[in-house]
Specification:
Blueprint lengths: L18 E6 L3 H12 L4 E4 L16 E3 L15 H12 L5 H10 L3 H7 L4 E2 L12 E4 L2 H16 L2 E3 L6 E5 L2 E7 L2 E10 L8 H8 L13 E2 L8 H8 L4 E2 L5 E7 L20 E4 L13 H4 L3 H6 L6 E6 L14 E3 L2 H8 L3 H14 E2 L12 E2 L18 E13 L2 E2 L6 E4 L2 E8 L17 H28 L7
Parallel strand pairs: 1-2, 1-9, 2-6, 9-21, 10-18
Antiparallel strand pairs: 3-5, 4-5, 7-8, 8-9, 11-19, 12-18, 13-14, 14-18, 15-18, 16-17, 20-21
Helix pairs in contact: 1-5, 1-12, 2-3, 3-12, 10-11
GO molecular function: oxidoreductase activity
Organism: Pollutimonas bauzanensis
Protein name: Tricarballylate dehydrogenase
């Protein structure tokens, strides 16, 4: 195959505009696919809908990759074997996952880091306050933005053509075969294609449709903040579903985190998360607790809280701690609301002081304090409450007191396209031979609900690499069958 391309996406030859592989998307999964296809000798065009300064999708907001390892490995301590990883995933998804595909993802994380380093990604030892994940997660030096930039530099160096501000509106299909993509009035042909354009979390109307109206007459989605990119409108996903691609996942399920209610509407990223939930109590706008704050370690359970808050009146809740908890969690970007007494804190938060004080005092009286240790599932718990706290339960009795208003923060949605182990898009149960999908557009195959830290990057990396490799092979096969010599665009 000809490799007559430049790192800046500028053609060195004239001739056909037919690429071997078209990658639609600009985040981690798309970049992994583009790099793998290019390494296999294919000519590659990557279309990123965002402008260059906002490239990278949700990947720019990430921090780490959840990794299986049977012994200590460079930045990872101890061991995190396949079965434990699988059990963690099984627990957060409630069994709504494809075990075959999930275990593929898990196993791939044991060996992918050397490939990532080859493309410029660096890892660091976990920092203090990184949520009990030194054993399970490898942290990116410089975070997700550095990872995305490294991949783009590597792609340019290898000759991947990259175009920004290039959203794809439609896909031309012949049965289950990819023919071309349409971006505005432009038609872009390729021998194979990888779809990696994200979910629909930035599409407010689709979120409203997915969540509907609740019994209080509210449209919960109207109060959601979008923790991730503003560019994931789900246009390509909707097109593929309307075109008959097999779907997977519940449209109301997502990576949904309780974040600071003062966070921006889009692109707040990881720094908007409130990490002190397990150290105190959480109340709704009626000053009532509604879920066990100490159910499990925060990295395993933090992503359930966005959905829990979404189900509360007004889609708002308040995380309450006292002075004893300060310094034990990752500090948020915005300072908490502070007060010297519980009634004063209630007033500042807009809660009924009597109801709030009663809730906290009832909780305090129910605490059975053993040996507090936030690094293990300790024996500090409550007794006699309608909503128990099973670990880390200590009275909230030492001023000053702090409160953080919470809103649901959507990172990415789980409705997607059904795949097999080759990352192929399916139509009526049959896999396409030249159309593949990776990242958030297929994450619902592994994540039916729930989330655990770093697994989104695991899915995107695993299936991005598979999709890129398969797309290159499909393009090569088609070129052989047609007997046509092609030039890179």
């Amino acid at each position: 195959m000809s490799q007559s391309v430049s790192g800046q996406g500028e053609s060195l030859v004239s001739g056909s505009s037919l690429y071997d592989v078209l990658v639609i998307g600009g985040g981690n999964a798309a970049l992994c696919a583009a790099l793998m296809a290019r390494e296999a000798g294919a000519s590659v065009l990557l279309l990123e809908s965002a402008p260059r300064e906002w490239r990278g999708g949700n990947s720019q907001h990430t921090r780490n990759l959840r990794c299986m390892h049977d012994a200590p490995q460079d930045v990872l301590v101890d061991a995190y074997p396949e079965e434990e990883y699988w059990q963690d995933l099984l627990k957060v998804t409630g069994g709504i996952t494809n075990e075959k595909l999930a275990r593929m993802v898990i196993r791939s994380t044991a060996t992918c880091r050397d490939w990532m380093r080859k493309h410029g990604v660096n890892f660091q030892n976990p920092l203090s306050g990184t949520l009990h994940v030194a054993r399970t997660n490898a942290f990116f030096m410089g975070g997700g933005k550095a990872l995305v930039n490294a991949y783009y530099r590597s792609a340019e160096r290898l000759g991947v053509h990259i175009r920004y501000d290039s959203p794809v509106d439609a896909i031309e299909l012949d049965g289950g075969r990819f023919i071309a993509a349409r971006s505005g009035k432009e038609r872009i042909e390729a021998r194979s294609c990888v779809l990696a354009a994200g979910g629909f979390e930035s599409n407010r109307e689709w979120l409203r449709e997915a969540w509907g109206q609740n019994e209080r007459g509210e449209w919960p989605a109207d109060n959601f903040l979008i923790r991730g990119t503003r560019f994931n409108q789900g246009v390509l996903l909707r097109y593929m579903l309307d075109a008959g691609a097999d779907a997977i996942g519940d449209p109301s399920q997502s990576h949904c985190v309780a974040i600071d209610a003062r966070a921006p509407l889009y692109d707040g990223g990881i720094c908007t998360r409130i990490d002190c939930v397990s150290l105190g109590v959480v109340v709704n706008r009626d000053a009532q607790r509604f879920y066990d704050e100490g159910e499990d370690f925060w990295p395993k359970r933090y992503a359930i809280w966005g959905r829990l808050v979404a189900q509360q009146p007004g889609q708002i809740a308040y995380s309450i701690i006292d002075a004893k908890s300060v310094g034990r969690f990752m500090p948020p970007v915005f300072p908490g609301t502070q007060a010297d007494t519980l009634p004063e804190l209630a007033g500042k938060l807009g809660l009924d002081p009597a109801a709030f004080t009663r809730t906290v005092e009832d909780y305090n009286a129910a605490c059975r304090i053993g040996t507090f240790d936030h690094t293990v599932l300790d024996d500090c718990h409550t007794e006699g409450l309608a909503v128990s706290k099973t670990h880390w339960a200590r009275p909230i009795d030492t001023g000053p007191f702090f409160g953080y208003a919470l809103r649901p923060g959507i990172t990415f949605t789980y409705l997607g396209l059904k795949v097999d182990e080759h990352a192929a898009v399916h139509f009526n149960g049959m896999p396409s031979d030249n159309l593949f999908v990776a990242g958030e557009m297929m994450a619902g195959n592994v994540l039916g609900k729930g989330y655990t830290a770093g697994v989104g990057m695991s899915i995107g990396t695993a299936f991005g690499r598979i999709a890129g490799d398969r797309a290159a092979a499909a393009a090569k096969q088609q070129a052989t069958l047609t007997g046509g010599e092609r030039n890179a665009a």
